[in-house]
Specification:
The complex is a heterodimer of chains A (331) and B (424). In chain A, helix 2 packs across helix 6 (165-179), helix 3 crosses helix 13 (311-329) and helix 6 (165-179) crosses helix 7. Chain A has helices at 23-26, 40-58, 83-95, 113-125, 140-145, 165-179, 197-208, 226-230, 255-259, 266-273, 277-281, 301-304, 311-329; strands at 73-78, 99-103, 130-135, 153-159, 186-190, 212-216, 233-235, 247-250, 286-288. Chain A has two domains: 26-165 and 318-329, Rossmann fold (3-Layer(aba) Sandwich); 166-315, Rossmann fold (3-Layer(aba) Sandwich), CATH 3.40.50. Chain A is built from 13 helices and nine strands. Chain A has a five-stranded parallel beta sheet with strand order 7-6-5-8-9, covered by helices on one side. A four-stranded parallel beta sheet of chain A has the order 2-1-3-4. In chain B, the strands form three sheets. In chain B, strands 1, 2, 3, 4, 5, 16, 17 and 18 form an eight-stranded mixed beta sheet that branches. An eight-stranded parallel beta sheet of chain B has the order 6-7-8-9-10-13-14-15. Chain B has a two-stranded parallel sheet with strand order 11-12. Chain B is globular, with a radius of gyration of 21 Å. Chain B is an alpha/beta fold. Chain B has 13 helices and 18 strands. Chain B is 29% helix and 24% strand. The chains are: A alpha/beta (331), B alpha/beta (424). Chains A and B meet through helix 4 and helix 8 of A and helix 5 and helix 11 of B.
């Protein structure tokens, strides 16, 4: 079915496949689904625009809304709980002048792609111009984008273990602001790599900007093929990267992973993989964390607000980056 | 039925027969004459040199009846088999209710009665496929069941598997395992490898299949008399284990699906859920090992694991989607295109994999293409170039990634039980 011929009165046939490669990729769609497929020049444009919007947001007094998205309606569909990312997107959209609806449908572990599709169809009928989607299953934003006409945009706010593009963009923007050109810089990403979409999106992006990336994780949390898929170095020894890393990104460890047997205890995890005060002394690296932080495990509390930490700046940058992204998909 | 098939190429490996330019006459379902320049006053079909082989047998299909008739019924499934060139299939027991009791066997037999395609029936190995208690194998065997399996799931307990082997061997039942170490595959959407890592999807590591194959080979060896069969083998390691076991004269056999000798996990990127099956598509190394296994005889037969699913069960994300694709109508085109025409197998080898060996495993009488024998024939044109269209599909479900695929080799017709079916 050719989406270009779809009209409001057609009942679009859901496509599960295309025989001759992806029909979907032949159509010019403006979505932000992955960093993997995002051209470097677009990445740089988005980083630059986020600088502009960061300045815009610094203005004090009652907010002057930008009119970039005036008259547009954006629906935030968060099928996986997230207050910070959702709020960040909502603020970004509203600051650009859009009308915003947010849905956080109750999602059980058996949530199916088909109910997402039903929701989308309903909102589409109400003339929503863009969907920002977070889902616990990888590939759902792409699956949905393939069902939508090309003038409705899809932004991936995090899909399963696959990608979290806006997180990577804001991380890179802050690192760039703090360190200058990221080419040749060494970035270490530490923690539960196996279950981290943040690690993957960051790796794709940093490699495109010419950085060296090392993933640090116990072997139980390091996917076997990650090195060849992403072109990153891997190690289970955090201490080995302390003197060469320009920036160290700590990932949140999820407590239930211990229960599922990936590591024996939080104490042992912290001892091996935490940025302890002692490790901080042995390194000059800037510290990042996508949040929320497990205080005392990945980072000590006082470090979070210390001068080498970019954590708070990451949060501010998040809104600016999302403004840049929403502006771009509609351009 | 009075039918003269003119100008056929007969290949019957069991008779060392490979001869073209022949005419074959069938009357009342029996081959009456084979010769050259035959005359007849009945129906005459000129087959233009098409190959006539002993009827193909697909020993692993899911007909979904009783219980899931919205996906397929015995009737639609057997029609798809017939169109696909099969004269016989064996249906798997994960129906609702499962084939754990002779009354389900009778129900299915009745539904299949009178069709061109013969239906062999596989029973469960444990009650209701739960993996705990032995199924009533004596009663099932008496009802005509020749093979047992809990297909869809593996028997998790080695102790239970031992008892299944010990009990089944008394009735010479073929014990077929769906080899999957379930503790390693919870939530898996595809093969664990580079593609799953890239797509961020939970993966099914190949070692999870190999573990059960290894376990069962050791148990079968320990028990001693049982005939063990590995369903839908998909891994290089699995093929190797089976080869080594055969070298030790253990009674193990195995089957492979056409999708496992043609596609890799990269198909997921293009076809999404239409490339989701269990066991999953693997890597090129696995495909190469499977073809090697087909060539050297490690793999005994080709079986489709025909798994119909309704559209809504596939039109969703990779984790939620149902596993499996239909296969009856693409099996022979895939085999001809990618095994025979690709130069890996001769026609004789391909026929042994598709007809001779599966029949032997299920204890069915061998088919011979000679005068006096009942006509049980698969007819195909191995040179015909064509494109598979969705409109061609006779199965009730259309879940296949091969729509639009181009093949070299097409089924012409099927003859069995006094009936003949020719494709348009």
């Amino acid at each position: 079915m050719n989406p270009a011929t779809k009209t409001a009165s057609n009942t679009p046939k859901t496509k599960a496949f295309s025989p001759n490669g992806s029909e979907f990729s032949r159509i010019e769609r403006k979505d932000l689904l992955t960093i993997e497929h995002l051209p470097t020049e677009v990445i740089i444009h988005l980083l630059d625009r986020s600088d502009y919007y960061l300045e815009f947001l610094k203005k004090s007094g009652p907010f002057q809304k930008s009119k970039v998205l005036e008259g547009r309606t954006v629906a935030n569909l968060f099928f996986e709980a997230s207050t910070r990312t959702r709020t960040s997107f909502e603020l970004a959209e509203r600051r650009l002048g859009a009308d915003v609806v947010s849905l956080t449908p109750a999602v059980s572990s058996l949530a199916k792609g088909e109910s997402v599709l039903d929701t989308i169809r309903v909102l589409e009928a109400m003339k929503v111009d863009a969907f920002v989607i977070r889902h616990n299953v990888s590939g759902v934003p792409k699956f949905l984008a393939e069902q939508l006409p090309e003038d409705i945009h899809v932004v991936n706010a995090g899909d399963g273990v696959h990608e979290h593009p806006t997180q990577a963009l804001l991380d890179a923007a802050e690192m760039r602001a703090a360190m200058g050109d990221l080419k040749g810089k060494h970035i270490a990403i530490v923690g539960d790599i196996l279950h981290s979409r943040v690690a993957r999106s960051n790796a794709w992006l940093l490699k495109k900007l010419g950085s060296h990336v090392t993933f640090v994780a116990p072997d139980t949390l390091m996917p076997r093929e990650i090195s060849s898929v992403l072109g990153v170095e891997t190690t289970h020894d955090l201490d080995s990267v302390l003197d060469t890393a320009d920036a160290i990104m700590m990932l949140r460890i999820q407590m239930e992973r211990q229960a599922r047997g990936f590591f024996p205890s939080l104490e042992e995890y912290r001892e091996q993989y935490g940025m302890t005060p002692e490790r901080m002394l042995r390194s000059n690296a800037l510290i990042l964390h996508p949040g929320p932080i497990n205080h005392g495990i990945e980072l000590e509390s006082e470090m979070v607000y210390g001068e080498r930490s970019l954590v708070l700046r990451q949060v501010k940058r998040g809104v600016a980056v999302r403004m840049a992204v929403m502006e771009w998909v509609f351009s | 039925m009075d039918l003269l098939l003119r100008n056929v190429h007969l290949i019957d490996p069991s008779l060392q027969l490979d001869d073209s330019g022949l005419d074959l006459e069938i009357r009342d379902g029996v081959i009456t004459r084979i010769g050259r320049g035959l005359k007849s006053d009945g129906e005459i079909r000129d087959l233009g040199g098409a190959i006539v082989a002993p009827g193909f047998f697909d020993m692993h299909v899911h007909l979904r009846e009783p219980g899931q008739e919205y996906k397929e019924t015995i009737e639609t499934g057997l029609n798809a088999a017939m169109a696909g060139g099969f004269t016989s299939v064996c249906c798997m027991p994960n129906t609702e209710p499962s084939i754990s009791d002779p009354f389900v066997v009778s129900y299915i037999k009745e539904k299949a009665a009178g069709h061109l395609v013969d239906l062999a029936i596989c029973g469960t190995m444990t009650k209701d496929r739960k993996g705990d208690e032995l199924s009533p194998m004596a009663a099932l065997a008496k009802a005509g069941v020749k093979m047992i399996s809990d297909d869809g799931a593996a028997v998790r307990s080695a102790e239970v598997m031992r008892r299944v082997f010990e009990y089944a061997q008394m009735f010479d039942l073929l014990v077929t395992q769906h080899c999957e170490e379930h503790s390693m595959t919870a939530g898996a959407a595809m093969n664990e490898g580079r593609v799953s890592t890239k797509l961020g999807l939970p993966g099914w590591p190949s070692v999870a299949e190999e573990i059960i194959i290894a376990r069962d080979i050791l148990l079968a060896e320990y028990v001693g008399g049982v005939r063990y069969h590995v369903a839908h083998v998909s891994t290089k390691g699995g093929v190797r284990l089976i080869r080594e076991a055969k070298a030790r004269a253990i009674k193990v056999s195995c089957e492979v699906t056409p999708h496992h000798f043609t596609l890799t996990d990269e198909a997921v990127e293009q076809h999404g859920t239409m490339a989701k099956m269990c066991p999953p598509l693997r890597t090129q190394e696995d495909v190469d090992a499977i073809i090697e296994g087909l060539v050297d005889g490690t793999i005994d037969c080709i079986a489709t694991d025909h798994a119909p699913h309704a559209a809504h069960e596939k039109e969703t994300d990779m984790v939620s989607a149902a596993m499996g694709i239909i296969g009856l109508e693409t099996a022979i085109p895939l085999g001809l295109t990618h095994l025979v025409n690709a130069g890996h197998l001769t026609f004789a080898q391909y026929i042994e994999l598709s007809s001779t060996n599966p029949r032997k495993l299920l204890g069915l009488p061998a088919i011979q293409i000679k005068e006096g024998e009942r006509a049980n024939l698969t007819i195909f044109d191995p040179t015909k170039k064509w494109r598979f269209a969705e409109g061609d599909i006779l199965s009730k479900s259309h879940n296949t990634p091969f729509v639009g695929a181009e093949f070299i080799g097409k089924v012409v017709g099927t003859v069995n039980n006094g009936k003949a079916h020719f494709r348009a």
